[in-house]
Amino acid sequence: MTVGRCTHHLEFHDDVVVKRYASWGRGEPHREWAALTLLAEHAPGLAPAPVDAALQARPPMIVMSRLPGHVLRGQHVTGEQIEALAAALDRLHRIPARTVQAMEAAPWGPAAAVHKTRAWAGKRPDLGTDPLVREALHAGAAWLGSTAPDRLLANPLPPVLGLADGNHANLLWDDRERRVRLIDWEDSGRSDRAFELGEVCEHISRVDGSLDAEQLLARLDLTPAEVQRVRDFRRLIALGWFLQLGPDGPATPHNPADTLQRQAGRVLRLLG
Question: What is the CATH number of the domain that holds 163?
Answer without folding.
Answer: 3.90.1200.10
